[in-house]
User: Which sequence fits this backbone?
């Protein structure tokens, strides 16, 4: 949810929305999707570090980790380069919206 909020409230120009609007959108997402959580012993950070993922790529790695945990068939994302670092199990599921 933090990634959605961040993206919506920092979009360029006329596409940027305010915090209140972003929260309404997040509420709509929560009604339609399941929230996936992981235990402190099951974080994507160790695997990401081993793969050489640094910086902002950790956010896409976290999303990829949650998608695998949820057994998602398809992962939608624009940053294919970050997702490709997560390995073939992720890249074969990745689609650009």
Assistant:
């Amino acid at each position: 949810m933090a990634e959605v909020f961040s993206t919506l409230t920092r979009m360029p120009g006329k596409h940027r929305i305010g915090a209140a609007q972003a929260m309404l959108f997040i509420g709509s997402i929560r009604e339609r999707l399941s929230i996936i959580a992981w235990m402190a012993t099951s974080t994507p950070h160790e695997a990401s570090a081993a793969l050489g993922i640094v910086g902002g790529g950790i956010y896409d790695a976290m999303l990829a980790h949650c998608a695998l945990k949820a057994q998602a068939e398809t992962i939608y994302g624009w940053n294919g380069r970050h997702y490709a670092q997560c390995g073939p199990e992720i890249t074969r599921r990745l689609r650009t919206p």
Notes: The helical segments are 2-10, 19-32, 45-51, 57-69, 80-84, 88-91.
